């Protein structure tokens, strides 16, 4: 059954070598890091395409023409509304992406990134359904590194709290959740997930994704090529 009241937003970057997953170096090359990022993005898009929501939006930055598997990603994006990220820093781009996504279907927005390829249509569908409950204003999915992997808000102005929170810190998740709660919004917690930033994350997430996922295939190939730091 289609969830008629939610937009799924994926904030992503074109997987161009040297511009994505650079924290995986020197364990693997920048080209291989981009391969992992591409696999993660494509797996995430596949899950999103099979999630029962009203609209699917991708806020994209970077040049797909220079990205690993850029043509394949572009073909998949035909099933999404694609908007360009805008803003002077990542926090502001997140805020603006929520506003742009809300303008597509005028519905609550559930936002994820491209670093959790283990998400499933069931997990995303449950999060979307929770966000649209009458007793919930927001949903929050914490990440194991102290950040968050999902944020859903009932109205785009609620995402303005992100403008004053520095991303990618060990307290980013706590500060985001505290900002939501302090404003009196009713927040439902989602499961904790690991996103992919470090070699340890690659090992962990490769064990959580579907057996036929692109991410697991790339991680396995890199291990077989001698990148033992990945598992």
TrEMBL record:
Pfam families found in the cross-reference section: DUF2064
Xref: InterPro entries: Nucleotide-diphossugar_trans, Trfase_1_rSAM/seldom-assoc
Domain of life: Bacteria
Name listed for the protein in its UniProt record: DUF2064 domain-containing protein
Organism: Prescottella soli
